[in-house]
Each structure stands twice: as C-alpha cells, then as structure tokens.
Amino acid sequence: MGNLVNISTVYSLREDLTLANMCSIYSDEELLIAKIERLIEPFILPSNIRGKKILLKPNWVRHNIRVTDEFCLCTNEDFILAVLVVFLKLSPKSILIADAPIQGCQWEHLLSSYFLDKVKSLSLKYGIDIQIKDFRRTVIDIACNKLQKERITLDHYVVFDVGAQSYLEPITTNENRFRVTNYNPDRLATSHRKGVHKYCIARDVFDADVVITLPKIKTHQKAGLTNAMKILVGMNGDKDYLPHHRLGAKGYGGDCYPKYNLLRSCSEWCLDTANRRIGKPFYRCFTRMSTAFWKLSFPTNEQNLGAGWYGNDTVWRMVMDLNLIVEYGKIDGTLSNEKQREIYNLCDGIICGQGDGPLNPEPLPLGVIAFSNNSYLMDIVAGKLFSLDVDCIPLLSAAKQKLGDEEYVLLLDGNQVYMDTLNQWAVAAKMAPGWINYKK
User: Fold this and answer.
1) 3-state SS class at 93
2) Are 59 and 99 in contact (CB under 8 A)?
3) pLDDT tens per residue, range 202-240
4) Do 324 and 316 meet the contact criterion of CB atoms below 8 Å apart?
5) What is the mean pLDDT of residues 419-432?
6) What angle separates helix 283-296 from helix 262-275, to the nearest 10 degrees?
7) What is the pTM of this model?
8) Are 25 and 399 in contact (CB under 8 A)?
C-alpha cells in the first residue's frame, strides 16, 4: 500500500453539517462501524490483524471540565468503541487502549462508566483481552499541590537518545533554555542538551504488532494543529522529556514570546522557581507572583507565558523527533535505518476542536472520518480541511518536507480527489489566540 488518505463524510448535504446533527452521528453505532469498516477494508486485510497485539492510541488530553469538552476535547468514546468493534471482528490476540494525558488529568474522571462497562462487555463477547492503560509516570493533584512521581517504574519504558539526529539539535545551546510549562526545568535539562535528546517511550509501543492512533483533529496553541503527528506525544510517559518552548523572547535566545520585556522575564523566573518547588512549600506563592508580573507586562495574544503562538520554534521539532522514534525505533533504544512498524491513523473529524486548543477548544463540525497510513500526509490533509496555510505552520511545513516527492492517493467517499480540491469539503477553523496573525 502506498501513501494514502481515505476520507468518508458523514453528511449528505452541506446544510446538514451542524453540531446537533454531528452529535447524533456518534450515537449511531451501526453507522460508525460501517463507515470505519469501509474506510479500512481495502487496505488492512484480516491477516494483518488476526493473532496480533494491537495498540489503540486515542487523544485523551484531560478530563472534561466544560460542557462542550464532551464534543471536542478528546477522541469521542463512541468513536473509540466503534473502532474497537471493527478490530475485534478481525480476531487480534489482544488490544491495549492507552495514552498519557497531562499530569493534572484526573484519570478516574477521564473515562465514563459507560465506556468502561462497554469495553469489558466487548472483551467478554469476543473472548479477546482488552486493557486500558495510563502511560503517565507522574501525576499531580493541583488543588492539593500533591505530586506523585514514578508511579510506573522506568523499566516499563524505552529511553531513546536521538542525539544529533534530533530536530531540536539546531536550536540547542549550552544554556538551559528548554521548558515545559508547569514542569521542573532542571529535569528537562538532563534530557535535552547539546548532543543529547532523550525521550521516554512506553515499552508497550514496541511490544505491539500494529499501532493505530485515533486523533481528534484540533487547533493547537503551540503547534498550530494537533492530529496524527502530535498525538504521538502521548506515547511518551514522562513530560520531563518533552521540550515545548525555550525560555525568553524571540531574538534573545528564546521563543516563548516576541519582544523582550523585563516584567515577562521576571514572570518566567518566578514560574521556574515555582516549578522547582512543585509539591513543596511556597509553590503557590511563586505561581501567583509569576501571574502578577505577567499581567503587569500587558501581554497581547502573541505574548503567552506557555509559548502559545506562531513563533514557537520548539514544539514542532519535538513532535518530529517522536514520529522518528515510533517509526524507526527498536526496543533496545536505537534507531534503525529501516522503518520498524506501520502506524495507521483513524481520525475523529466528525466534531473537531477550534480556537484555544488543545485544552480549551470550541466545537467545530467537520463531518469526516479519515484513515491513513502516513501521519505526515494525514496532517497536511487535515490542515487543508481546516482551511489553513500549510506552508505557514512549521509542523505542517515540516510534514510537507518529510513527504517530499513521494506519491500519494487521496480518496473521498470512494472517489479520488486532489489536494487542491479539498477546499470543497473544508471549514474555516478559528485558530488559537496566539495564531491569529500566523500568516504574516
């Protein structure tokens, strides 16, 4: 099978593309199963799945907080269940459903009792073992400032050092500048420095015979778009290995925000101090000081303490590293010259997320389900369906460069289409606040 994206629409007329109509699609189990089966049938044979260990990787970001989170925050539970039925029919040996949400996610509130009961009943019905797993090594109770470290021992992970092959290497200096908002910067410095770029990938990824990601297509405040490529961040079990931005202003060694400002620098210092004291006294004192300094600097949308803007030149590089590892990584922690596994994407694009994603998105009815065997191609297509300028978004531009001149096929409702004609099915997605002027 060559590079492919196969798209199925779940509406007949454009005027049917409403939030209410798309919500009803999720509750139509037979329709979802039939659509997903038709998408994968020509490309995934029963022999590819029979007797194999399957890893399903949904987009579980955080438990629902707002009413609309049910629709656009995570991969829809009914969508996951439909995918589960489709692959159970193909008689795999086992199925693991796993992800690593943010450390403040309350796992017990992430998954509904309906979902858990349904998974259990499907396991009994088909006589196939189905496990659900939280990949996180560290969790935090934000309300109580209580940190639980190393809840899973490191021997359940494979630590990769991609070294000079890392996309981060060209922007790495001898200074400790890499940051993840709300994480200890000193721990990150041990994983990423000149010539060293380590990632902590769940061993289950390499134990699986087939990896299938189930992204929810959303805009993203740091990467522009999150879908088939960025979903692999959840394969990493420890966020201390994941640089999201660099300390300071653009042009002054960092990419957190444009234009140097002393108050913003003070805010960053206070936040660093707080993050070094997570779970310890005075943590909240320093977080409040950080917030106060930041507000006093009168920031615009592009000046975001979490580097949520189009000038973020770090996060896309980290995402590219993770895709390199999952495609070419071996269980001994080395990279092969040959692709080690196929990664399939089944994208939940029925109701997407727009605006301040990934944590505070607004519902965006797109009305599609998409299957692909190439994450780079899939994200370029997703960008087109969101009416984005692919060349102005570093992650998508890198995906385009990675794809190069490789041939590919785009199918939509069984007919071959072309990249330039996807605008007929596109919607105008609202970008995250820091990305409003990303085209300039």
Assistant:
1) coil
2) yes
3) 999 999 999 999 999 999 999 999 999 999 999 999 988
4) no
5) 96
6) 160
7) 0.95
8) no
